[in-house]
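Slide 14.
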Amino acid sequence: MGGPATNPDGIIDHQREYEGGSYNPFYSLASHPAVRQHGKGVAPEFLADFIMSVARMSAARVQGVGADQYGGEIQKFELMTPSEIYEALLEEVADIFAYASFLAIKAGAAK
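Slide 15: predicted structure.
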């Protein structure tokens, strides 16, 4: 397989990479045109594609580690009560808050 396909705007065809088994979401996000253009003006199409890339990363996690942890004939969430799903959601929000705090510390230390 050759390098990733790009359109004239420089957006990589991540769908083809994903289908070909060579998709690395972390590299793809870090090298995305929206990241490279940050501070110079991010075009709406780059921002939209970045958001879609995050969605593809989420889908890949559902099919990978998520399937290993929660999958099966019936998905774990299908067996959970709304209260259990809400509790799990709050735990995830707490993790996001913690990671945002870690990033704020790093950004502050980098000044």
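Speaker note: Residues 82-109 form the longest helix (28 residues).
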